[in-house]
Amino acid sequence: MTQTTPxxxxxxxxxxxxHEFGTAPQVVPAxxxxxxxxxxxxxxxxxxxxGEPVVLVKSAAIEGSPDRFAIGVFAWEPQYLPxxxxxxxxxxxxxxxxxxxxxxxxxxxxxWRIVCDDRRGELDExxxxxFRTRDDAARAERDLVIASSAT
Length: 151
Hints:
Distance between the termini: 29 Å
Number of strands: 10
Number of helices: 3
Mean pLDDT: 88
Largest sheet: 4 strands, mixed
Oligomer: single chain
Radius of gyration: 18 Å
Strand content: 25-35%
């Protein structure tokens, strides 16, 4: 049976932390990019992005609204190159060994999977994790890389 794992299961939705103006170089990881600007209060931003894998950095106050800010939203966004076997290299994802991430839906059921997922034995059996989109698979692989780097 194929198991599907939600990428952002928000069982405990902790508020996001909004970092002070000028701290982006210290608090935003090198592999994150600027995704958007959120305009609102610190509390609104903390609630809106609760549980999401983003870093928030406050700018100067919006003119005429001392409690409202343009808050930079930074996140890791996967970048891809085509893989020779029909999948996609995740070019900004690397294992401690130096290996690059790789995801594919080049399977009989066309579901997205992490190509080198050690948890999988056979398709449609225990440990066969599938994902709704290519980005979901890449983000799940990033979670595996981070977990493997922590051990």
